[in-house]
Amino acid sequence: MKEIIGIDNIKVNVNARDWREAIEASGNILLQKGNIKRKYIDDMIKAVLSLGPYMVVTPGFALAHAKPSPDVLQDGVSLITLKNPVEFGSINDPVSVVLCMACVDNISHINVLKAVAEKLMIEGMIGKIASCRSAREVYSLINE
Amino acid sequence: MGTIKIQTVCGFGCGSSLMLRMKIESILKKHNLEAEVFCGDVGTCCANKCDVIFISKELSERIIDRAKVPVISIDNFMNQAEVEEKTLTFFKNLKNKEG
Q1: How many CB atoms lie within 10 A of CB B60?
Q2: Predicted ipTM beyond 0.90
């Protein structure tokens, strides 16, 4: 089994009052691990403000990311589930699963994102992830 | 007529557009259709040569007036039924145009 998302990069039942806090929380995992600089989190929030909530690509799920930039030190993905779902202003609201993606360029991350996307596109997967009670459960769902 | 080019578009051309691209590619495969699918970003997608643009509903409003090719907006990138229906409709229209 090849690991898609590390157990340390998954958090469940995160408290977030709104979409900004949800993005912050998902970004903070990568910040703490040294994948990104703080500015990358601000850029993800700015992306929603300037482009709208299109990142909520399917009901309940947001793909938070910004443009590849020097603020990304190393490719990384993190995944959180929210204790209380938040609204992004999208037709696919409310969101309870946020995947944060940071990439150094437009190519390097493709295999990881493809692997994640393949899992998430399985019918009913988002709901299953949202109802997991531990990071270990999410880890098993995604990586196995 | 050369290879059909389908452009999937998101904010930066590297996140959700890739998910949509994968979904469309799997549908093409299922129905034995041939096309080249590539990702683009909302800022530059209208300058890229293609036959059709698939884009999220929220972003479609930003390009609909500028695009020179059909713009197909998708509500749910992971909804097999929606993406499949819209992809097949595009190919059907294409065939009608040719015929």
Answers
A1: 19
A2: no
How many of the other CB atoms lie within 10 Å of CB of B61? Answer: 12
- What are the structural domains, with CATH classification, of chain A? 7-139 (3.40.930.10)
Q: Best residue in B10, B16, B24, B73 to probe A by mutation, most A CBs within 10 Å?
A: B16
In this predicted model, what pLDDT tens digit does every residue of A52-71 receive, in sequence order?
999 999 999 999 999 999 99
> Other C-beta atoms within 10 Å of B14: how many?
24
**Are the C-beta atoms of residues A127 and A58 closer than 8 Å to each other?**
no
Cβ-based interface (< 8 Å): residues of A facing B:
47, 51-55, 57-59, 61, 63, 65-68, 90-92, 101, 103, 106, 109-110, 113-114, 117-118, 120-121, 123, 126
Decide: B64 and B46 in contact? Cβ < 8 Å.
no
B52 and chain A in contact, CB less than 8 A? no
pLDDT band at residue A1 under the 50/70/90 scheme: low
Domain that includes residue B54, residue range: 5-98
The model carries a pTM of 0.93
Q: How many domains does chain B have?
A: 1
State the CATH number of the domain containing residue B81: 3.40.50.2300
Q: Is A54's CB within 8 Å of B59's CB?
A: yes
Share of chain B above pLDDT 90, in %: 83
pLDDT band at B98 (very low <50, low <70, confident <90, very high): confident
